[in-house]
Design a protein that fits this description.
Elements (H helix, E strand, L loop, with lengths): L1 H42 L14 H53 L5 H31 L8 E4 H18 L3 E4 L5 E4 L1 H17 L5 E8 L3 E8 L31 H12 L2 E6 L5 E8 L1
Parallel strand pairs: 2-4
Antiparallel strand pairs: 1-3, 4-5, 5-7, 6-7
Helix pairs in contact: 1-2, 2-3, 4-5, 5-6
Length: 299
């Protein structure tokens, strides 16, 4: 009797052990399939047909459905991006020609004898054409940036070289307005996309020139432990503290700046670019006391 009980106990133990091995093998198979699905999805190679239909795991089945849906979504996003890219290129191309023709014919008209009223009307046409060209260019850049068509690709680069190019691009405009324009350089390396960051800094400097009627614009660089800090300081109209967030909104313009040229997109674009560099912008300003824009780029 004891032998029989011992035999039964051994059989039960062997059966339990075998069942445990079977469950372990099955779980490993499920996990291997899940891992394979995820690896294929990460590489963008996942497709439903590569997995058998006799799966017993609900996790496998649900994960496969999710990854299949994600793959389709990613493909749709890619197609939409291609469509947007084509549309932006068409808009850019189709608008440049008529704007250029407007400005060309305006120049030709200037060579003829015009009355005071006609000359003023021609000035207005040229100003609006230039404003339209700037708006189209800014919107095309913004759309390409936001849709990932043009990527901000930061890398270690020379800040002094960047500031020299800002100086070259903006000095004449400041001096033509009678403003002192000074640039201080410091040899420091930071992490940024050269082309896009140049665009951002020129937008900020252009904004400073626009809202400064007399005095100066100064640009300086200071290295901190973690950042290269670029200061753009003006003696312009200044900004109330509660209005500072508004100037970075898309098409955001303050009531006090309505009479100035512009469309309210330059600072929004600048903030987006610096954020994609991994940096940030800080503003110190008081009405009537000028403004200081501090651009922090990671070192």
């Amino acid at each position: 009797m004891n032998e029989l009980l011992l035999t039964v106990a051994c059989l039960i133990a062997i059966g339990a052990l075998a069942f445990s091995f079977y469950k372990s093998y099955k779980s490993k198979k499920v996990l291997d399939n899940v891992e394979r699905m995820l690896n294929d999805a990460i590489k963008g190679e996942f497709h439903e047909g590569q997995f058998s239909e006799d799966r017993v795991s609900k996790i496998e089945s649900k994960l496969s459905d999710y990854l299949q849906s994600s793959a389709l979504s990613a493909e749709n996003v890619r197609k939409d991006r291609d469509t947007i890219k084509t549309l932006i290129a068409d808009i850019s191309h189709q608008t440049k020609t008529p704007i250029t023709n407007l400005l060309l014919h305006s120049e030709l008209l200037r060579e003829t004898e015009l009355s005071q009223e006609q000359s003023e009307s021609l000035d207005a046409i040229e100003n609006e054409a230039e404003k339209l060209r700037f708006l189209v260019d800014a919107l095309v850049k913004l759309s390409r940036l936001e849709n990932g068509i043009l990527m901000v690709e930061p890398k270690d680069d020379d800040v002094a070289r960047l500031i020299k190019e800002v100086d070259t691009a903006m000095r004449k405009k400041a001096e033509a307005k009678g403003l002192d324009f000074s640039v201080g350089e410091e040899n420091v390396t930071a992490y940024f996309d050269y082309k896009w960051t140049l665009e951002a800094l020129c937008n900020i400097v252009d904004n400073a020139i626009k809202y400064t009627e007399k005095g100066s614009i100064s640009i300086s660089v200071k290295a901190t432990e973690m950042f290269a800090c670029i200061s753009i300081k003006d003696t312009g109209i200044g900004i109330a503290e509660e209005d500072i967030p508004k100037i970075f909104a898309r098409f955001g313009r303050l009531q006090s700046s309505r009479e100035k040229e512009g469309v309210g997109i330059g600072l929004y674009l600048a903030r987006e670019i610096i954020a994609k560099d991994g940096g940030y912008i800080k503003v110190n300003s008081k009405p009537g006391k000028g403004s200081e824009f501090l651009v922090y780029l990671k070192k």
